[in-house]
């Protein structure tokens, strides 16, 4: 595909009003949330909430995520993606107003509800919307363009504002932004079709998971490759504590990652629109795994810099291919449930994965990188074995 044709397709994608309103509304709420997302623990310590209690809070959130994820997925299938993302935004308004009272108990309760219910409904609704789009990869490209830019701005602005003070006004502004986002979603997003009853959605979700071999393959690959992320706090610790890289340098890496992820997915959504399949997904996972084997071999800052940006390019391509593959293996009427099932199993696996990686990291960071890279290679062998036995025919 020539450059002119590629740019023309990008223009038509961005000019799609339905997709633009969807991405803009979620971009506004993402910006609002990003003002605080990295700073919630700091705010809680300022409210004299102990570090032990903060740890308990996040453990409860993780537990509730696993418990609520699948039922909420079925509910999203019942009410549709428009209602799901609209309700999630509007329900966030009173929760942030309660947080803004800066009462420790109200803050904790509101934070737990937001993180364990509101974010799940919003995420599942957004996934359902994009997977129901004609080309899921292109939908994700526009979504990533808008939300990543606004998230990068929000993170930096939030850090600056909170450095000076934690105020009720900031929470009020965030609540207003969520309200505006909800209104846009209600007025501009199209209604869903093919809504199903909650019990039927759950029944079909588990039924297809057992019977659909391609869906089961996608689940296994998603689980095994879920650790291939350089955003884990283990890697940050490795960069700062072991390699003695300045924290400002690490901050620049992650900020630039957000900006790169804003633009590359949209470009790749056009280029990879007809190349999204398990074979190409395995190539990208392999490339990602190789980087995990290479990172601990180098201490030179510039080489690490190059490896990091090679990883961002691969992740951008992998995100597009993954969305298109997910669209091909899930059923339109129960996508909320199926996405919830997959993410729940991945989240359960991550509990054991993080424990193992933490243990290996304590012995030597080298082992944790190799273990993660090995899981990526295992995901590739899973795909190849599926090809061998005819699952992908």
Automatic annotation (TrEMBL):
Gene3D superfamilies from the UniProt entry: MFS general substrate transporter like domains
Major facilitator superfamily (MFS) profile domain location: 18-393
TM region positions: 20-40, 52-75, 95-118, 139-162, 168-187, 215-237, 243-268, 338-361, 367-392
Main location: membrane
Membrane topology annotation: Multi-pass membrane protein
Keyword Glycoprotein: no
Organism domain of life: Archaea
Entry keywords, A to Z: Cell membrane, Membrane, Transmembrane, Transmembrane helix, Transport
InterPro entries reported for this sequence: MFS, MFS_dom, MFS_trans_sf, MFS_Transporters
GO molecular function terms noted in the UniProt entry: transmembrane transporter activity
Cellular-component GO terms for this entry: plasma membrane
Cellular compartments annotated: Cell membrane
Record's protein name: Multidrug resistance related protein
Organism: Saccharolobus solfataricus (strain ATCC 35092 / DSM 1617 / JCM 11322 / P2) (Sulfolobus solfataricus)
